[in-house]
Specification:
By secondary structure, the protein is mainly alpha-helical. It is 46% helix and 3% strand. Helix 4 crosses helix 5. The structure holds heme C.
Length: 146
């Protein structure tokens, strides 16, 4: 039997992948998503994804989003939406629908490098759509043009 069978090579690759995922988790500290209470927001239809923020400018959504953002996104994107350089500074995300579409795409699916490794985890199935748009409302309220 050859010592380097395809299966062994596969196993080695899988082990390396697991190790780097663990390193990433360690590098970012606690990665457990923190639940977001959306009480007070108009409920949205489950499974029907909007491409425009239904809560834009809503003070309640901004308040819920601020807490949701600071607990789940700030460790990479920075407290108060001011990036320390780890991930894009979301104050510059376009206002209005163009920004909304890009936002919902990213928060649902996360972001991956061309080698398939995850640089931002997907949040679909973790947060309700209501919570996602609340975070978008907060980010938009912190928008900067500079
Ligand atoms: C583990 C770190 C990490 C966490 C946690 C994280 N992100 Fe990201 N995010 C990134 C990185 C890195 C990118 C850039 C991806 C790329 O190369 O395009 C990114 C990109 C984005 C973008 C696109 C920005 C642009 O200018 O293209 C949005 C929007 C975004 N993230 C929103 C969020 C939100 C909202 C949360 C919290 C629910 C979040 N992210 C949590 C790392 C993270």
């Amino acid at each position: 039997m050859p010592t380097r069978s395809p299966f062994r090579a596969f196993l080695a690759a899988a082990l390396i992948a697991t190790a780097s995922a663990a390193d990433l988790a360690l590098a970012h500290g606690d990665v457990t998503p923190q639940p977001i209470d959306v009480t007070g927001l108009t409920p949205l239809k489950e499974g029907e994804w909007l491409t425009q923020n239904p809560y834009s400018g809503d003070p309640k959504a901004i308040e819920i989003g601020a807490s949701g953002y600071n607990q789940n996104c700030a460790r990479c994107h920075g407290l108060q939406v001011i990036s320390g350089g780890l991930a894009p500074d979301l104050r510059y995300l376009e206002k209005g629908q163009a920004g909304d579409e890009w936002f919902i795409e990213r928060i649902r699916h996360g972001a991956h490098k061309s080698d398939g490794s995850t640089v931002m985890p997907p949040f679909e199935g973790v947060f309700k759509q209501e919570a996602m748009w609340a975070i978008r409302s907060y980010i938009e309220s912190m928008h900067s043009d500079e």
